[in-house]
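User: hey, got a sec? need GTP pyrophosphokinase family protein folded
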Amino acid sequence: MSDSLPDPLVVAYQAREAQYAALRDAALTHTTELIGAAGLKIHHVTGRLKRPASLADKLRRKPGRYRTLEDVTDLVAVRVITYFESDVAAVSRLLEDHHEINWEHSVDKSMMHDPDRFGYMGVHYVVKVPPQVERFIPHVTDPPHHYEVQIRSILQHAWAEIEHDLGYKNREAVPREVQRRFYRLAGLLEMADEEFMNLHRLSHDYAETLPERVQTEPDSVFIDAQSITHLLDVSPVRDLDQAVAESLGVRLLHGWPDAERPQRIAALLHYVGIHSVGGLLGELRRGRADILDFAARWLPRLPEAWLPAGGARPGTSLVNYALLRACANPRLAPQEIITALDMSGILSAQQLVDSALDAYAEVTGEELIDERHS
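Assistant: Yep! Here you go:
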């Protein structure tokens, strides 16, 4: 065969490219739905179709190895990128449970490389096309029988992409002059992968022990987004929020869809000098009456800020406590609380500050002379 003629397998592949594209899309959807149903949190899933030029290059590099298109196992590939290396195993088990694996052509690349490299590149499975995918492939006499699924952590993926871009597909490809630095960098990435997994475990353990620690040793619990999220659902914060809502004649909203609200509340509590759960709980016990009085005077002055939500948001008592404390301390700026709550655009910042200072003056029963008041 003349070198100028295209390989018959490339010609056959181009003739069926639309079919393989349909397989890619169906396999991508199936894999995504499978991971979602299992409740696994991953970074992303993508699908890839081999380019004809890439197939031609593969056939040239390995002459005689592929007799039919079915012998080429990576024409269609789904790539699953996880956040953590430990999740690679979880996704692998899921795929094994729901697919018929071609073990002869599948490989765990973590087992293939020497220990002096971050060469583990995840898991590559060749899977038989399942019925859930096959029904979306255009009907032909000989439909594709398999596709590849690649599973990597996000750092494994980054390394593999950079390594591929540099052209270093194996040890021999790495120039001797750069091998030491190359492998040292690989080791750092492997350590980073392990540390991210450790951080994930520590975060999970922290959340698991948080309720008990709040009960038994609240002074040792730092004010952060996680501790605030917990406090919003328990007494005394929940009871105080309910009391604020009742004083306004509205309902307390549950499950408010603002993932950043606990972080904002933690930031404003730090601003007014509250850093531990124990300190916050003490302040709420001592200041309960003033917090409710301030909220009943301040919130009706700016219905535009909270009425459109349909009620009082979780954590409203903490917001009013922080604002009350900021008004009481000349060295603190109520505007910082307004900024932390992201209330811009409802009223001007100065209008919000003025309304808070006026409410504070009514709570204390004193005529307010404050340079922070316009």
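Quick note: Strands lie at 44-49, 76-82, 107-108, 123-128, 146-153. Let me know if you need anything else on GTP pyrophosphokinase family protein.
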